[in-house]
TrEMBL record:
Gene3D superfamilies: YVTN repeat-like/Quinoprotein amine dehydrogenase (2.130.10.10)
Protein name: Nuclear pore complex protein NUP43
Domain of life according to the entry: Eukaryota
SUPFAM superfamilies according to UniProt: WD40 repeat-like (SSF50978)
Cellular localisation: Nucleus
A cellular component annotation (GO) from this entry: nuclear pore outer ring
Record lineage: Eukaryota, Viridiplantae, Streptophyta, Embryophyta, Tracheophyta
Keyword terms of this UniProt record: Nucleus, Repeat, WD repeat
Main location, first listed in the record: nucleus
Amino acid sequence: MQIGGGECVTAGEDGRVNVVGAGEGRMEHRRIHDSNGLASYTAARWGSPAEFATGGVGFGVRWWDQRKPEGLVAQFKGSWGGGGITGMVHSIDIHPSRKHICIVGGSSGTVFAWDLRWQQQPILLSGVGLNGTDQPVSESEVWEVQYDSYTQSSGITSAPSTKILPVMVCSEDGILAVLEQGEDPVELLAEPCAINAFDIDPQNPSDVVCALEWESMAILSRGRDMVAIQ
């Protein structure tokens, strides 16, 4: 769903990309793309009122612009090191001040940044690297990724546009962590069950609400004395 807007982008396993909006009391539907079963989508995120990103199998990521006749303007096929990568994208996030960079999370603990200025040079934050080395924050599915406004609040204005801002992730093996380019991961929670989703309080970004596998929730309050309540 668009932030502050009235349109929703849907991208499904059937390979269809649609934009649905509510106008004058009725639903409006626009088909942006139909891959006819040749591609499958598992995640989507708005980048601007006219642009959005989708992700799918093979860690493929695509950038779409509704103002363009064909819609699709850029794509990354996940062919790192000359070979295909198995797995799929589960989550995408785009920072409002850096819309040229997508953060992508998916299978096997993989988290990477995709910069539209260098479309075939992803920046790996966790997972199997370009040289084959294994450095995941998690060894299972990364269900959600979000830019961490709490960690980045002090340095966002001075950071160069090429630097990847800190990212929070949660995983199937119960890890909630913050990843920062060039730094060791900071583990915030390690639960005995999956952390399926989380949200960072936009008004008080030190607080994080997590949805756990066993129909339960965890509330994390960061600060001088970090506290987790379940």
